[in-house]
Predict the 3D structure of the following.
Amino acid sequence: MIGNTVETYDYAVYGFLATVLAQLFFPHAQPGTALLSTFAVFGAAFVVRPLGAFVFGPLADRIGRRKTLMVTVLLMAVATPLIGLLPTAASIGIAAPILLVILRLCQGLSAAGEYCTAVIYAAEFSPERVRGRMTSRVQVGSVLGLFIAAVVVLVLNTLLSSEQILAWGWRIPFLFALPMGLIGLYLRSKLGETPEFEALEESGQTAEAPTREAFTKHWPLICLIFLLGSLHMIGFYMVYTYMQSYIISLGYTSRQATLVTVGTLACGIGLIIVGGHLADRWGRWRPLLALSIVVLATCYPLFVALSNADSIAMVFVWALLISTGPALYSAIVPVTYVEVLPANIRGTVFAVGYGLVAAVLGGSALYLGQLLVNITGNNNAPAFLLMFGAILSITAALWARARLVGLPPEQAHDVRVIPAAEPAPN
């Protein structure tokens, strides 16, 4: 969880500084176009994630979960501080956004292997009866990383003037990633390998060519991971990253928007903990299905209420309600990712499917949300993205049900994380 907190902080601080970076790296564009350009660079890190998945997913299946986690946190710990050292467009012109894109691509490569391997690591160490809540702790780390990033930005907005932030203050959150990354690297150096992977190595059942096996034998499972991740990916970045810029576009200050984001993130941590317990109590597919339906039915009315709120307090209330469904969903889906996959190619299939959904729906969420607003003039248009993700995830929940409870007995071991564990509740 702590390692994923560090990784997510590094990756997400860019999103919280999007409006500032737009002025520094795209200074000659119109305000709306500059923000779109900044979101496009944010999305570039997602576009490269399938490539990172082809690197780190097979590594997790061949050399182990622990070693892969060491590599991912090291790469992120190098790329993020370098963003904080970049000269701006005023100093080096077009080279500034180009370098920014390159470093964002490095972050994307790291993130491609980080989350998936961390979830697998947690699940393979957890007894079945608490696997949902233990695996959800990785997702707590994701939200906690966003929370820390939002708090850092909030402190900057409180202590520094707008001119100071533009001049040098924006660099601080990125440079803060260096000591955080070193802490994450130290912690992971003390971890052991998972019992599940060690058992695969001892029995000689590790995949020799996991990528080939994943695409020749298990491509439907890649599609399943993609669908399961739809609401997870869109919801996570819409409600916890894009929401800040969205609230600013409604006429509130950056400080107010960040304060709302901090509040929703703090509540999100609690919601994810609750969601992990729901996964252990009610199984996987039922709550995923129910939450997808709730998001589909409620997100548009909630966006209407948010865009018409007459105070920052009501903005917080509606933003929190919008985030509740996606937060609970993101707590239950991690263990589902793991349990629908065979152990020997789990890292590859998970990373590829998740990397694809990140590239298609995660990185584009911020850009498309703002683009829909710009094109339609409708401040509620971002709700359509959440509704789309919910529709895909309804399909995924029903498919996961068939996968978890519909396998013949001779294939039952394919979805068991720890061979001695009892079957997962469904």
